[in-house]
Amino acid sequence: MHNKGNQIDVIIVGAGLSGLAAARTLRKNGKTVTVLEAQSRVGGRILSTSIKGSIFDLGAQWVSPHQHRIQTLIKEFGLTTTSTYKEGTSLYALLGKKKRGLGKKPPFSRLSLLDITSIEYAVKNLLENIEPTKPWESPLGQKLDSLTMETWLKKKMFTKYGKAFYRQVYEEGLCGRLSEVSVLDLIWSIKSTGSFDQYLSAEEEWITNGAQEIPNRIAEELGDTVLLDSKVLRIDWDDTEVKVYTEQGVWFSKKVILAIPPTLTNRIVYHPPLPSSRDQLCQRVWQGSVIKCVMVYETPFWRIRGESGIAFHDDGPVKATIDSSNPSRTEGILIAFVTGEEARRLGELSKEERKMEVLNCISYLFGHEGLNPKGYFDKDWSADPWARGGYAGHFPPGVLSQFGQALTKPIGPIHWAGSETATEWRLYMEGALEAGERAALEVIRKLT
Ligand SMILES: Cc1cc2nc3c(=O)[nH]c(=O)nc-3n(C[C@H](O)[C@H](O)[C@H](O)COP(=O)(O)OP(=O)(O)OC[C@H]3O[C@@H](n4cnc5c(N)ncnc54)[C@H](O)[C@@H]3O)c2cc1C
Q: Is pLDDT at 6 greater than 80 in this prediction?
């Protein structure tokens, strides 16, 4: 395929939510686009599946009422959301003991609760002191980027349960260790949600129709400008033109937007090579290790016992669970997340061995009924060659302060999108939309 005779304005690499949002914005502004997607589906880290009318998500699922872009799309496409079930007790299986607590307050001693309140206060204080678009330029930016979250938490917290709870919550969220990430990386993600309370609202509701309906509907609108099974292997560029190579041929355009995780941008060959600051940024970013598991039971048996289905666990493969049962159906759906080292360990087992380890852990948390779901599904995102991990990309100390500006800085005709480049709700679906729109607007300004 050679399209030189009919050069398009912009080629977009990746038909995840970010690439699709970029294409939609460009089309609305009269620009011609082609979206090249490696896989035979759109959506990237959003992947819904269904069995006998029951729909569930193996990738992104939850949204916040404060995420205005995704909420607008949900309304526009006539989709609905379900509030996350939080009634009853939640389980805190930490430091070898199982404790149950009602509401948001963990069932810990007053001293541990005081410890938790004071760390939240410390986080809120840092949020006041960093700037949301270039946090490394904030007065505290360099200092926060010199510390790991592990060092910071050890210094700030003084109770065993307080530390165990916070370590569990943040390590599950990162899909990696606190010792792998800088304080600035984590605080920036929280800052980008608007406030600490908005950050806590990230899992308030989920898209009942399956999150993949959103990329599917945008792709439907874009029609044959989205080309599936088109892996981008090489990009040749100069100030006037871009040549994008796939196995099928060469595509010519004026600009290109890469809407893929930073680590994957470094697997494409560029001619001439990219400046070292961009390449070295991508040498240092890591995607977390995560397996998302879905268990379908005859009923949500935990609800009958007055449990919410929410569990925090610091041992064994399953680190967190959450109820995702559709209120209009009778079956109970429990979601489990296996993260970090456990995800890598389970990733090397056979499918059957992995399932048994997960179900044994569910039965430890929720009793023997947990052992026998009528359906079990999982997806190892680190093994996916077009994601290589999840939920998203993170930076160890020293990276954002030295290379942060290279995350979004265009290089000639090459622009960057993807949820990792967002400054609003970065690393979430909302961030993917914001980043795609931002990159499209950058290109539109240059083309006019
Ligand atoms: C298990 C899991 C659970 C999550 N849960 C949530 C959640 O509940 N809520 C939330 O908001 N977010 C969640 N996230 C994060 C969210 O999925 C991502 O932030 C968002 O979907 C990223 O979108 P994107 O378009 O930036 O990137 P991606 O979705 O990664 O899209 C990139 C696309 O580019 C394609 N691609 C890559 N390389 C090439 C190439 N060389 N040539 C052509 N195409 C290429 C890929 O196939 C992919 O389709 C979760 C992520 C995971 C993995």
A: no
